[in-house]
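BUG: 3D viewer hangs when loading the predicted structure for this chain

Environment: internal workstation, default settings.
Expected: structure renders.
Actual: progress bar stalls at 90%.

Input used:
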Amino acid sequence: MTPQQPVRLRWQLRVWRALVRAWASTADSLYWTWWQARSAGMRAQRKVRGRRAVLLADPSRVDPEKPVVVALSGLMTSWEFLSPLTDGLMARGFQVAVLPQLGLNMSSVEALSAHVHRFLDTHGELQPVVFVTHSKGGLVAKRVLLDDPEGELVVGAVALAAPFAGATAARYVHGLTKFGREIVTLRVGTPAQLQLEQMDAQDHRIASIAPVYDEIVGVRGRVRGGRNRAVSSLGHNRLLSDDRVHSLVVVEINRMWETWQEHLTASPTTPPKPV
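Structure tokens produced before the viewer hung:
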């Protein structure tokens, strides 16, 4: 091998990576556009019919031994955007609850988590639930978990492509509008981002699932003290339609539910210490 060959191979590898990333970003953008259009149509149809969905699954098809899943979408997306994921969970016997009142999730994490907390307080028959989230929804779920340290309302959260350590793409957005300022708070190293990242007391109740390439979050989807899983999916949004990801989400939900049941059935008293 000549001295020039290693250099050539490195450049070929860089070009190949750049092409893969460009293809993944383009495909993910097209996916986002398609599902945003479908979500808008679904919202318009629901508004015309005067329906406001809360529980999506037919009760006759729900496994009563499984927990209720509360689905939380990301920034600028409604719960309809998660339809591929929620449909996959319902096909596996889960009841899925959604919160249309969150809109497109353009409010602050604190405001959104307050809405979610009120929803859980007024629907005690669903408790305790498991969160399944996408993108910014993972931050909302973490905020609710911090406010529920005993796990009375929520067992845990399975977060897909969540910017727990900030979103690298947020650095391209300027805070000239209210929407822009909300995105700026997701930048890496901002006070709001660092504060939530460092509040890790309930991270052990979070399972983070991240794609190998995420053009929005980057490589910062890991959660401190939590369970971090990587999947061979490309793109921030396309993993929502990946059946392999759905299966992994179910595995994490079942693991959390079994752990919670073991904790629930454990003796609340400890044996006396020998004198």
